[in-house]
Amino acid sequence: MEKEFPDTPDIQSECNDREHYKLTRVQPETTNKKFKLIIVGHSNVGKSTIINHFCSSVYQDTAPTAGMDFQEIFVRFENETILLNIWDTSGTEKHRSLAQSYYGGAHGVFIVYDITDLKSLYKLDGWIKDIEKFSDVDIVKILIGNKCDDKINREISIKEGQEIAEVYGIPFFEVSSKSNINIDKLLYTMISDCIKKEHYKLIRVQPDQNTIYKKYKLIIVGHSNVGKSSIIHRLVKDVYKDTLKTTICIDFHKIFVRFENETIELNIWDTAGTERYRSLAHSYYRGAQGVFIVYDITDLNSSFKLDDWIKDIENFSDLNAVKILIGNKCDDKSNRAISIKEGQKIAELFGTLFFETSSKTNVNIDKLLYTMISKIHELEVGDQQTADEDLIIVVNSKYMYIMYFIN
After folding, report:
1. CB within 8 A of 204, min separation 6: which ones?
2. Pairing, β 322-328 against β 290-296
3. Which H or E run includes 93?
4. Separation between Cα atoms, residue 250 and residue 266, nearest integer Å
5. How far apart are CA 96 and CA 332, in angstroms?
6. Which pLDDT score, from 0 to 100, does residue 10 have?
7. Higher confidence at residue 121 or residue 385?
8. pTM for this entry
9. Angle CA 75–38–65, to nearest 5
10. Rounded to an integer, what distance in angstroms lies between the CA atom of residue 39 and that of residue 90?
């Protein structure tokens, strides 16, 4: 999906937006929702003034941060109180290594440059590499071009900022803490994106013998060595293992997860990708509510084999089985042979949902499983509603028949 970037900031449009994105700062209170945020960037780009505006809603000139600074605020977001722990880092090379220990456990990171200082732009790549190396893989990232009120001294255009953000695949805002441009919108977007990330997290639970739970049968198919077993290993144990043996014939795994206050048992069948065992997989399609079809983004041959797997699914699986196409190993950017756009086109051709994943860096794994369960659940609800409607029709027609007979 292509990123949308904000239009050229102007005071009038900002005033129109402000009411919608306004966050109410509240007094400290007990809350279960806590987000750790960190702000990074070169010296004197205005990181501390942005944080001060977050916390006190006023502009204030500040001295450069020495080492690390910390602030916390409580805000109301969609009828919920959220505690934000915000870590403000020094941008000097001397203190940069100190910041690395603070990335762990952070939900979101703001990466700031100064639109009037080209040097701050050149330093971005170093900060991005630190974030990729030391932060959690699913951390929310937002690029910020600060001091957009200073039009006279501008050295970096909005378009250049947008292009940089597009290269890194992250959202982009130009802001001014001095003129209060996009400040609340920036924080609102960060909180909203952090909540979305949490939404897709599935809690693995232990089965309760006294609980009646739903059972979903899932199957994963694709060419050899595309990483099917590593995806399943990550789904089941939430860890990556680099030395998994090649699946021979069929392997089976079971996990229990919580979904919308229900416990669901997932029976997952992992199939061998070789031609020798492919026919054995046919009998396992029946009764499966969901099928994952996997290719390796670094291996063109694995994408050429997809048509055969799709035909098998059409021939042997249930008609309403949910199908998701997966481009695996998206962490291996240097060896990519199949683009995201090509993967999307293949999914459109086959009429399936599409994700790129990495079991190694845990990209989209929980979202993948959440989407599969959600789609199966939607179909179940739809089938139940249809069954209820059919029952009403039968009862009414019978009732009308009896009335007609009496008359």
Report:
1. 238, 255, 256, 257
2. parallel
3. helix 93-99
4. 16
5. 27
6. 52
7. 121
8. 0.62
9. 105
10. 9
- 148: pLDDT strictly greater than 50: yes
DSSP assignment letter at 307: H
Tokens standing for residue 2: 């292509």
Any idea what DSSP says for residue 62?
-
Dist. CA 144–CA 176, nearest whole Å: 10
Name the pairing type of β-strands 290-296 and 214-222.
parallel
Q: Can you tell me the distance from the alpha carbon of 225 to that of 100, in angstroms, rounded to the nearest whole number?
A: 35
Nearest by Cα to 38 from 155, 140, 152, 117: 140
Q: Please give the biggest Cα pair distance in the chain.
A: 96
- What are the tokens at 197? 């990330």
CA distance 324 to 145: 37
CA 109 to chain centre: 15
Rounded CA separation 229/252 (Å): 10
CA distance linking residue 206 with residue 257, whole number of Å: 8
Contact 314, 308 (CB under 8 A): no
Identity of the amino acid at 133: K
